[in-house]
Design the sequence.
């Protein structure tokens, strides 16, 4: 009788470790995954993008991607191109394997799709949004537009004011691309308090032409002589 | 007419007598399990030896079961590990038992050795017991290392690579020894085959043979009596004194002195099973592939201190420390019972022994901690994955923000922490503006120095300017930024 009781007890004891609730039992989620096999957007974003672009909860040196206005400017194909090939000469590296990065085409597609999920048409300004890219405008008109829309924070000559620092610092201008200046002129840096094109002067959004002109003026301030530290041209309106 | 039960008992006894008459079972039992030990040896401090032996037995059983599935070939080893871990019923549990059994075995063996050292059990006449124990120490560590190779994952691969690099430092025959160890020029199937042969045949066989010698010495020279301060060991009188102790208070090991060993055994088995259930098996980590550049291999727990020593020691002493160091330690340990074979046994009268034990355990503990955290390793994806705190970004000028981008893009954070996140190889930069002025920062970035490479070739003037401008803003609130005292003094004059 005792043996008859002992056998099921022994079997139960042996079967115990196979129960799924054992905390030590490895699941397939614990299985090692090659970096190229990762397909979770969050995991990919957090390991490749978070450091420079933050995720909306934190802020970073480079512009946030969780900005509906910025994302409305950018076609998914363009975003894909930027991630895959980087921006030559600037602080955005190429992530595609064929360009020396670590991400597969599929992973870049996942990143593009995930980032584009943050688009939100309901949060866009009512004013007509200037296009992502356009030729540079008129420098003199840009100077005037800067005085009107930007000088209150960045100072009359762009050298910095009470609320924000210089945007004509030669080292700054050397580090950023023309497109970056245009993108900030349109989308601002909402996470840092820099308003977008529609909200710089209440009730007076910047026109697409004014955006191109301001960009042209900022670009005109940049002098880059090979081998020399960058310089600023004195402003001659 | 006898009852049936009585008949069966009689038959059993006569069969036993027939066997005993030929194999001397009774006599062997009486002289082993029944041998007399000092009653004082039935102490909780004396259970570690039998507990280590118990671990060995468990390892033999679980290891044999693992060998039923494991295929020792470079192509299949990893796949069979995955099969065991994720598919085979209870396979993960078997792996976990073997893994934790190994950890427990090494750990308990170290406790046993510490106890033997502190209780003076290595002294006359137990020199061979001590030396055979040292051989068992080496064999057990060998089993633990070769067992790690059996996983044949990236930890195993790089562990072998480091082992080969150490062996390769041997003068004159280094390359030949490496070829012999790896079974060729590279880590491949031949390597795995020979480590498999070591792990399942050579080392366990040797360990059983030396355990036999070790136990034989325990029987012939007796278990160390519990040391009493003032009872001094003298070569001339000790044997008589020990015989007197046995005569006065000797008890048969079985059944009088074995009770604590049995209870300890229950704790050891329970501990291994509990760890296996709660923490599970280790790995396998990524496959053994040198093309995986983002692997971060670590040795198993009991070798972490060696990992730390190898990483931290100055380059000039590496070869000497790696090749001569173990020999010196070995000579000291072997010589111990001959140099220090008599005198006091009790640790209460041997302060140096206590200090040595504390020093060794504290050093090993600290090195193990360092090995587990490895602050010297850069965080390879730190640049792209670690965010910055709001305080480190808000209120910065456009140039300073570009500096924050450069700090990420040029991978400074792989070695430097900002706001609690980042590598620990270089100094924490969270408050760097408080310590260094802009020219000092620029000099450090461009020329390097200390442990840091020079980045002048890899940064444009604008990048340096932005980086420095950003770092000078990294100052805690209410604290003035660093100032060049010579400049402020000159300005005043």
Sequence:
């Amino acid at each position: 009788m005792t043996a008859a009781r002992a056998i099921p007890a022994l079997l139960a004891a042996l079967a115990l470790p196979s129960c799924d609730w054992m905390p030590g039992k490895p699941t397939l989620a614990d299985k090692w995954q090659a970096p190229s096999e990762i397909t979770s957007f969050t995991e990919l974003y957090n390991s490749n993008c978070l450091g420079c672009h933050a995720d909306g909860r934190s802020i970073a040196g480079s512009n946030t991607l969780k900005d509906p206005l910025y994302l409305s400017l950018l076609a998914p194909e363009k975003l894909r191109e930027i991630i895959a090939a980087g921006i030559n000469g600037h602080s955005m590296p190429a992530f595609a394997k064929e360009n020396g990065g670590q991400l597969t085409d599929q992973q870049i597609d996942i990143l593009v799709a995930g980032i584009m999920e943050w688009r939100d048409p309901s949060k866009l300004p009512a004013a007509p949004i200037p296009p992502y890219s356009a030729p540079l405008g008129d420098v003199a008109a840009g100077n005037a537009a800067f005085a009107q829309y930007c000088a209150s924070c960045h100072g009359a000559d762009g050298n910095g004011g009470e609320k924000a620092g210089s945007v004509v610092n030669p080292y700054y201008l050397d580090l950023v691309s023309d497109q970056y200046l245009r993108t900030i002129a349109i989308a601002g840096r909402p996470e840092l308090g820099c308003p977008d094109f529609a909200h710089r002067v209440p009730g007076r959004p910047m026109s697409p032409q004014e955006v191109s002109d301001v960009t042209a003026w900022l670009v005109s301030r940049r002098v880059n002589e090979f081998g020399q530290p960058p310089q600023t041209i004195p402003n001659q309106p | 007419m006898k009852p049936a039960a009585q008949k069966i008992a009689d038959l059993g006894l006569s069969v036993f007598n027939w066997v005993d008459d030929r194999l001397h079972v009774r006599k062997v039992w009486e002289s082993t399990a029944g041998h007399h030990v000092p009653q004082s040896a039935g102490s909780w401090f004396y259970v570690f030896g039998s507990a280590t032996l118990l671990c060995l037995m468990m390892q033999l059983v679980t290891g044999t079961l693992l060998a039923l599935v494991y295929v020792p070939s470079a192509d299949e080893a990893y796949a069979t590990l995955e099969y065991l871990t994720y598919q085979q019923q209870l396979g993960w549990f078997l792996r976990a038992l073997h893994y934790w059994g190994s950890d427990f075995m090494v750990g308990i063996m170290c406790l046993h050795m510490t106890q033997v050292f502190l209780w003076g059990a290595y002294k006359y006449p137990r020199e061979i017991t001590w030396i055979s124990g040292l051989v068992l120490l080496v064999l057990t560590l060998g089993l633990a290392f070769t067992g790690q190779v059996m996983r044949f994952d990236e930890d195993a691969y790089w562990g072998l690579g480091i082992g080969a690099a150490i062996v390769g430092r041997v003068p004159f025959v280094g390359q030949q020894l490496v070829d012999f160890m790896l079974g060729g020029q590279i880590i491949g199937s031949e390597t795995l085959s020979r480590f498999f042969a070591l792990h399942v045949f050579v080392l366990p066989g040797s360990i059983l043979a030396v355990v036999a010698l070790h136990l034989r010495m325990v029987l012939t020279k007796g278990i160390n009596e519990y040391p009493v301060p003032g009872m001094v060991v003298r070569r001339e009188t000790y044997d008589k004194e020990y015989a007197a102790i046995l005569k006065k208070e000797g008890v048969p090991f079985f059944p009088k002195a074995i009770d604590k060993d049995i209870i300890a055994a229950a704790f050891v088995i329970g501990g291994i099973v509990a760890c296996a259930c709660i923490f599970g098996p280790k790995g396998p980590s990524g496959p053994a592939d040198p093309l995986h550049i983002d692997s971060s291999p670590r040795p198993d727990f009991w070798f972490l201190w060696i990992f730390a020593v190898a990483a931290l020691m100055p380059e000039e002493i590496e070869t000497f420390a790696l090749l001569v160091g173990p020999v010196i330690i070995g000579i000291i340990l072997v010589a111990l019972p001959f140099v220090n074979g008599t005198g006091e046994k009790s640790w209460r009268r041997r302060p140096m022994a206590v200090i040595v034990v504390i020093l060794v355990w504290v050093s090993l503990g600290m090195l193990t901690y360092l090995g587990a955290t490895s602050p010297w390793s850069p965080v390879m994806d730190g640049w792209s994955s670690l965010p910055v705190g709001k305080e480190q970004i808000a209120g910065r000028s456009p140039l300073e923000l570009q500096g924050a981008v450069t700090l990420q893009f040029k991978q400074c954070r792989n070695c430097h922490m900002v706001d609690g996140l980042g590598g620990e190889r270089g100094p924490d930069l969270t408050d760097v503006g408080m310590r260094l002025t802009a020219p000092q920062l620029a000099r450090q970035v461009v020329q390097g120095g200390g442990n840091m490479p020079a980045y002048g070739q890899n940064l444009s003037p604008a990048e340096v300017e932005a980086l420095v401008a950003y770092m000078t803003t990294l100052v805690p609130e209410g604290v003035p930024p660093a100032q060049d005292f010579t400049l402020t003094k000159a300005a005043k004059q």
Remarks:
- Chain B touches chain A through 58 residues (CB under 8 Å).
- The mean pLDDT of chain B is 93.
- Chain B has two domains: 39-373, 382-486.
- The domain at 382-486 of chain B is CATH 1.10.760.10 (Cytochrome Bc1 Complex; Chain D, domain 2).
